[in-house]
Amino acid sequence: MELKLIRSISFLLLFKVFIYLLLDTFATFMGLRIVDYFMQSISATTISIIIVSFVFALFGVSDFNNKRKG
To answer: Is 21 helix (H, G, I), strand (E, B) or coil?
Structure first.
């Protein structure tokens, strides 16, 4: 019984991290894409914006390990 609970908790955490990475990457991608569109002095390919957005999202994953206080 405890093993099933541990598996379900770890699956839930993994699912939350996956959803976070997906949504954060998409939101950052859209923001950077808009900046790229309106600023003529810079130019970035779509794949480079996706990679940078994903790296930025990875920095926030550590927040899932920290419990919120208060």
So the answer is: helix
Residue 66 belongs to some domain of the structure? no
Interval 39-68: pLDDT, tens: 988 889 999 999 999 999 999 888 766 655
In angstroms and rounded to an integer, the radius of gyration of the C-alpha atoms of the chain is 17
Which two structure tokens, joined as six digits, stand for 23?
């949504």
In a domain? residue 23: yes
Q: How many domains does the chain have?
A: 1
Distance of CA 13 to the CA centre of its chain: 14
The answer to whether the beta carbons of residues 60 and 23 sit under 8 Å apart is no
